[in-house]
Amino acid sequence: MSLDRTDVDKIAHLARLQIEEQDAPEYAQNLSNILDLVDQMQAIDTTNVLPMAHPLDAVQRLRSDLVTEENQRELLQSVAPAVENGLFLVPKVIE
Amino acid sequence: MFDKTLAELAAGLKTGQFSSVELTQAYLARIKAEDTKYNSFISVTDDLALEQAAAADSLIAAGDAGTFTGLPIAHKDIFCTQGVRTSCASKMLDNFISPYNATVVDKFNQAGAVTLGKTNMDEFAMGSSNESSFYGPCKNPWNTDCVPGGSSGGSAAAVSAQLTPAATGSDTGGSIRQPAALCGITGLKPTYGRVSRYGMIAFASSLDQGGPMTKTAEDAALMLNVMAGFDKRDSTSADRDVPDYTADLTKPLDGLRIGLPKEFFSGDINADIAAQTQAAIKEFEKLGATVKEVSLPNTALSIPAYYIIAPAEASSNLSRFDGVRYGYRCEDPVDLEDLYKRSRGEGFGPEVKRRILVGAYALSEGFYDAYYNKAQQIRRLIRDDFTKVLSEVDVIMGPTTPHPAFKIGEKSSDPVAMYMEDIFTLSLNLAGLPGMSIPCGTVDGLPTGLQIIGDYFAEQKLLNVAHQFQLATDWHKQSPQGI
Amino acid sequence: MEWEAVIGLEIHAQLATKSKIFSGASTAFGAEPNTQACAVDLALPGTLPAFNEEALRMAVKFGLAVDAEIGRKSVFDRKNYFYPDLPKGYQTSQLFHPIVGIGHIDITLEDGTTKRIGVTRAHLEEDAGKSLHDEFPGMTGIDLNRAGTPLLEIVSEPDMRSAEEAVAYVRKVHSLVTSLGICDGNMSEGSFRCDCNVSVRPKGQEEYGTRTETKNINSFRFIEKAIVGEIERQIDLIEDGGRVIQATRLYDADKNETRSMRSKEEANDYRYFPCPDLLPIVIDDDYIDAIRQTLPELPDARKARFIEEYKLSEYDAMVLSADHNMAAYFEVIAKTAKDAKLAANWVMGELSKLLNQHDIDITNSPVSAEQLGGLLMRIKDDTISGKIAKQVFEVMWSEGGSADEIIESKGLKQVTDSGAIEQIVDEVIANNTPQVEQYVNAEPDKRGKMIGFFMGQVMKASQGKANPGQVQGVLKQKLDALVN
């Protein structure tokens, strides 16, 4: 499996990652190598094998519907890069 | 004093040989003096530590002390610690002062522990060498040209260099066991779900598990007594009782059935490491254990399966780092897309970006079945191998790593070569099983580790086996030269 | 060419839990920005979800109400995309194994016919926060109070063929979720929103045309307008030789038109996969049966009961039973006034008129059911006339107060004292001599009509308070006396 520049650009956009021009070929090469490594899996017959998403066969626990959290806006927004009037600010979003 | 175990220090505090403040001050001074050589700490929390130590001394004076009261430890910088920078060794979180405590941190605080600081690691725990840290590589105290392993390299180096008696770590594919092996200390990755993941910054949610990194198995038991337990805030945490992990330490090993997977002794493995592992097994036979060869036929597949599942989960888990609510935000974004792409592009290092890209690719349209789904199927095959073998033996043993610590920079340009170093550790995370690494020898002056694998929630058994070995041998007592 | 529209709907109903689907923060509407967004809602590093049992129970209730398969094992998946109101960078939803499977809903159209609409699925997911675009120049403000509010997304089959059918379906779903008590149904607050998938095809053609999706419409009227407009737009486009492009569109209520959403233009690859922080939700028959026992009366059953118990017409029963809150309101009044027909007329007439005028939901009505019931009692016992009652009702609406208080303070009590009525009648007769003469000289069969004039004069003179029946009697008696 070999990825080229276009593939890297497409995935980088999906993941919202800026990849510098000069680094792109190396990422393409790295990714291709990793995909070669994982392609070993394709040789294995997994017909009728259930995918295993969790290590333990446990089921979801349910939480009681209670309000347990108080307003901590000041504390939680103390680490925010841009806040005004209690709102997080980002560059204008056009819908 | 710095060579003392947690158990010994606890006794010293109890009998008034020294106070927690004295102990803490001594460690803080030692970190200041020595850590320039190793770079094992990202943050040293002097004020917090001394405050906690003073509180501990009052409890001790009042006779209200528990086993852990006043004992200093360090936390891997992946555990959120309120009021303290929690960076995950990333530029992305360099400015992140956590507004809350991880459950593990809360538990240690409640037990009266003293937090000396936050230890270095691979960025977002992605790595086996601690070289991807934004704060620079951590160095192996046995040879500072070598890596300490990773991702919990800082915790391993700090314990090994006696800058802290013990530390927390996290293990997604070997991140506790591999650096423990490479730094000559004891490390335990508990069963998935045994230790709460709440507040432990997620790398791969279905694989991550926190655990102790210590000088001895006995100390690991003391640490796990604090760390383990059900947490309603973590849906994947196991809702079952926590035993006293020190209770079974002294049980004799008569009749212990050890399985040696032939796949752990073949392929690209250092001959001395293989020999030392065999020597350790002989020691267990002397202690009354029986040994048989077993097979985990899908071991080699754990690498491809892991390097799909972990990046896939990581690519999604790390989407929250977007420069909006906390963490790094790029200068003067021109629009929203620019804000996202540059904050993430500049905030994450190359290995993190690589894994996000691999993960996003594996989950993308048209590839999901061939990669992600396939990897989850193989994961089941790997788990079934273990289940079968563990129905025949009590524990599985083998080397923790195929090689001793490598030189800093030696593998950093070849991610795939680096990934191969995880061959013996990854499969446990995929299966969710507990595993330990304990020192069992040295190769060219570098320590090597014996991996002990047990059944689900068999941590007591692992600790018992490791403790008995440490009573009979002194590999765990060896220190790097000059320490 | 004759065209046929094909419409499928996705309805997002906010579940009426106290706390969020994965955190203990409050879901109450209208708080200061970000005061109900806790560490989990903000997706702080290391935080994890814990699933709210009430959201599950509510979803199962809905599934039972639409006769659907309930997922014995349902799984949360992550839908990955970047948007500032989505803190984790993924929405926790259910793609592969939803909690509610295939079901159906019967709708009644205006001509009285019913039609069965398929429900494809309904799944649990978390709501996003809100983006405020107009508060800061060049910047968007993000409020995450809504982030993590539980949603049930109800997906229909593309079974509807007109805006009328679509609105009937949405009304029915609204009626169901409010009757079940799983959603407050408040559309202006966004508790109940609708995405409309619309395509057109030549009548008789099997395959579907290219569809567009119009998102987040939050009123019945807008749903109708948006669908009608979109159908017209598509037909015009095709007839002019163009073709419909698959797109996400936004309804602009001010301009009554839909426009393409820029942010959704690019094809999305959501990279769905099972959420590793949550485990499969497994429920058994006992759990489902226990919930079945708690199901309240549903609209269809209620309609039948209204016809039976209150002797309402088919139409009145349908209108009053559809909305759970309106039905409850009606029943209080009907019982207080002991006159179901009168109660129905007032709820569907005066009350609905003012509610619609002011765009107020019946749950927020300034006139409570108790107040209106009290008013109708005074009509029943002849304290006031129906006409005066409307005046009292208007005062009640704008100033509050009970019927008795208003009647008392405004002196609106009906005059039933025959002496007083006679006196007014005498005055009217004395002051309108020409009309009295006309009456006297008229043919007897014309007099009945002419009496209306005198009625009007008497009522006017009494400021509407005289009892009309009594006035009629006295007038007739006195005028006829003059004839003889």
UniProtKB/TrEMBL annotation, chain B:
Would the keyword Protein biosynthesis be found if you checked this record's keyword annotation? Answer: yes
Question: Which Enzyme Commission number(s) are on file for it?
Answer: 6.3.5.7
Q: Pfam families in the record, alphabetically? A: Amidase
Checking Gene3D superfamilies in the record gives:
Amidase signature (AS) domain
Key words, A-Z: ATP-binding, Ligase, Nucleotide-binding, Protein biosynthesis
Note the SUPFAM superfamilies from the entry.
Amidase signature (AS) enzymes
User: What are the catalytic residues?
Assistant: K76 (charge relay system), S151 (charge relay system), S175 (acyl-ester intermediate)
Boundaries of every Amidase domain copy: 22-463
Listed under catalytic activity are: L-glutamyl-tRNA(Gln) + L-glutamine + ATP + H2O = L-glutaminyl-tRNA(Gln) + L-glutamate + ADP + phosphate + H(+)
**Top-rank lineage group of the source organism:** Bacteria
InterPro entries to which the protein is assigned, alphabetical: Amidase, Amidase_CS, Amidase_dom, AS_sf, GatA
Describe its partners and assembly state. Answer: Heterotrimer of A, B and C subunits.
Family, per the entry?
Belongs to the amidase family. GatA subfamily.
What is known about what this protein does? Allows the formation of correctly charged Gln-tRNA(Gln) through the transamidation of misacylated Glu-tRNA(Gln) in organisms which lack glutaminyl-tRNA synthetase. The reaction takes place in the presence of glutamine and ATP through an activated gamma-phospho-Glu-tRNA(Gln).
Q: What is this protein called?
A: Glutamyl-tRNA(Gln) amidotransferase subunit A
**Gene this protein is translated from:** gatA
